[in-house]
Amino acid sequence: MAGKYKISRGHSRILGSTVEKDGVNFAIWCPDATEMELLLFSDIDDTSPESIILRSAEYRSHYYWHVLVHGIRDRQLYGWRVKKLGARRPGTIFDPHKVLLDPYARRIVFPENYNRTFSRYVGSNLHFCAKSVVIDMSLYHWGREEKRPLHAMSSSIIYEMHVAGFTKNPNSGLPPEIRGTYAGIIEKIDYLKDLGITAVELLPVFQFDRLDAQPGKSNYWGYSPMSFFAVHGEYSSRNDIYGPLDEFRDMVKALHKAGIEVFLDVVYNHTSEGDASGPIYAYKGLDNPSYYILDPEKDGAYRNYTGCGNTINASNPMVKQLIKDSLHFWTEEMHVDGFRFDLACVLSRDSSGQPLNDPPTTLAIDCDNQLSDVKLIAEPWDAGGLYQVGAMAGSRWREWNGQFRDDMRAFLRGDDGMISRFVNRILGSPDIYRGKNVDPQKSVNFITCHDGFTLWDLVSYSRKHNEANGEDNRDGNDYNFSFNYGEEGETRDPRIRAVRLRQAKNFMLLNLMSMGTPMVLMGDEVLRTQHGNNNAYCQDTEMSYLNWEPRKESEEMLRFTRILLSYRSRRGSRRFRGRDFESLQEAIANNSITWHGVEPFRPDWSHTSHSIGLTVYSDTRGLWYYVFINAYWEGLHIKIPSVPHGEKQKWFRVIDTYLAPPDDIYAEQDEYFPIGHNYYLGSRSILVLVAPGRPN
Prior knowledge:
Oligomer: single chain
Strand content: 15-25%
Structural class: alpha/beta
Distance between the termini: 86 Å
Radius of gyration: 27 Å
Number of helices: 14
Helix content: 10-25%
Largest sheet: 8 strands, parallel, barrel
Number of strands: 28
């Protein structure tokens, strides 16, 4: 007996808290402890919990502590204390009064007077601490019809979005109680489906501490997890214990029904505990030397390869297991379809921080049979200077291609010396991936993402404007390859606004036609602006929210994007009939390309070249494509080559981004415009033609 509770040995086969037939089994990793204390709380604000002291070897299996508490069930609130330690390794942190979260908890709750600051200091945080909750995952019923879409990466279009920012704007048209929630996303699924995306990539939904930010700001993005298992509670419209879990699963189920996959942006590189001045609420207090990469030459200071104060020691066997268990939880229990790993290069570092040629964690994830049908996407760099685009260990990993982003931006801006790099990006970056046993979808292509300018800001600002963040504009990337085209920020000048809109269309088109898997940032389809802020991590304001009120330019961009996505996702007819079109990607992948300049068959590969044309044949559609990209700041008179092997065939215009709607892009029901051999293509614009025919 332990107080009013009957206890028995329990087991460590499943870590965390597990509901069993006659009680709840608790198991936790804490190898150096000689005595542990399990605290059971009666409610969220309870400051006088029941205490169960574990000191006997009966409750310990080498590295693990475990106990079965009889007579309790799910919804039980709990926490841990490390009461006594044996040998203390360098870097060990010991505070017997500190209430600690269970790293495997499926739900974390916060008292009304939760205070992050009090967990920084030696002594009790009992009156202010967050608490873990016992959850029975079997209580949710997915239903027989729930089915994962399982889209191939070759046909995927990823939409990177913030759960709250997607619907939190008052003009979203949703009731206040569901704005900014998982339920809010459910209400807007028709918008996503009509847009034509195949997967949403959600910014972090692991429970994070919104107070982990500069004074007066909030942690909006969520890139500082408190847990790798618990879903973020504030994104739920329900406040009950099961509310966030059920609402998240309802969202996944609804998205799957609409044919949309769910990817999570996961942060396995650091936690919200920060550096030596940060709080202690879990990992530090349980086993600091195992969970984090420490510097033995600096008295156990935290190695900071993440820019966030600490770095997860992913090569440690227990931490590797923690990460894999987390991935299994989100796929098996929450039915998630894929993951984007933030600062994934951290997973390639050893316990001293040095890069590994064969990192055990990335390779273990790559070959994990339980993740065999799950998409794995790496952000292949970290804040410590490790850059592994084209070099992530494991053949299944896809990569955010930062070179695609930068080279596309530089070429369309009009930089010299970019023509060869630009062409490589269109072709799936063979200069990066050549010689590797990978498919064309190794590269995840993007022009913008959450971290940086939005698409409209990319063409409206020549420098960042992050003053609102309170860091004297020192934060955020200084190298954006952006341009304002005549005036910094918002302007009423119709000439400037026209070229900005045209460039936005050009970027969207190039992203969707290039080899690889395209990713589109939330709101770029309607020209969302952050007013030049390229690091809105702390801006839980309308600056960061999707604006649902249409204006002329945003409606024009939305129409253009929807039609483009319909081409890419092949939603249209498979018959030509003189007016059908598909993505260029398959044609580029499977056929040789003929390159052109303003004269047919005479491409300009010089240092000052700002234009290139190509023809390529699509086997599946029996179509020839002609594409000409003019990144020059003046219009060009170009000569169009004859349709190969089809002297009597005509080219038909599908896209000319210089033209006003509806001639800028034709939808499937439109009659395509026949084109002769001479064509004037306006400045900073792209032309796409199609023609039926067969090669000899």
